[in-house]
């Protein structure tokens, strides 16, 4: 079977092509002469699977999209506190090349406008590093993210440098304000060089997918961007990535994003998909007209808006409580029946999922509460089985809450069997800390055998068990 996804992407491009509005960036002459018929889109999944359509081999300069990745490098090299001392995180509502500093703090408003980006550039490697060392570090890092060696487009670099008065003005303003300490001309040159690195949409989609994948490159498995920086970068992409169009973008598209004046845009939906689009004609805010249209369409058609509450935590975690009646010796004597309770979780469990398990445990096994129907009904259960067989992951708070539940059940003297074949509970590390631990098994049969061995024979009312 042929995947429908590339056909769909082609359809999205065909629709975007009808939009003739906008003009390529005029202030960099090489960009002003760009072939405006070029149009491309790519999607990279967090496992690295890539889809693309249109002119997906055509290279263009990364421009301001580099700002997101260089901000991550600045955080890595200078540390977040130092970076926050120098660059704010508030949307400016100004154009990207505004000569402005935040009132009171004198910092650039955010790292996505040029003032903040030039500052971030100056923090890469070290404040007194040479321009060459910084650009080399940036080129190397962007190449690792793209998964291939990238190059600076010297023609674009020279063209921008020749008319760089505005950015030079920003550089001098930063130096005068004490935000940068190096030679402002060197910082601006380095920044312009970082903007002139050539990419295609496939490179950008892969770079974006690495951010989606918590900084781990989908193919190499390398942690290229530290996890904590990813959160910071995605936050400022959300609030400031589309300059003075940030609010429109968040409400319409709802995906952290960054655009560049050569016509590229990346969208980065955490945990899901990295998007890249390219078309040189820009709107008055400096964002690609067709690129924006493509992202809007993808978000609408594929339900990618991050604030679209279509997935409730309840749906990802199914807590099923099956009451199993035991009593091998006198199965027909109700007084001899002993219960084994089974709680099953499913999916990627976070706080809300682990809260549901905790709630189910307290409801079923706690003291009867007249206000909660059915509460305490099984407080005498002889054994409890917690199945994590269908759990894909537990985040740190979910794991902590489940461990706390387990400790409390053990402290009550309960017999506890945990089905955890993928070791999502990270049991060994925790076990070392506490004396008591549950019986950990691989599957339901082993759980049943264990329970049988201690005198309760579980008889399921639930076919799933
Ligand atoms: N928005 C952009 O892509 C701007 C980048 C460009 N190099 C500039 O500084 O003007």
From TrEMBL:
Molecular function terms, GO-annotated: glutaminase activity
UniProt keywords, alphabetically: Hydrolase
E.C. number: 3.5.1.2
InterPro entries in the cross-refs: Beta-lactam/transpept-like (IPR012338), Glutaminase (IPR015868), STAS_dom_sf (IPR036513)
Enzyme class per UniProt: hydrolase
Catalysed reactions, as listed in the record: L-glutamine + H2O = L-glutamate + NH4(+)
NCBIfam families recorded: Gln_ase, PRK00971.1-4
Protein name listed in UniProt: glutaminase
Species: Cladosporium halotolerans
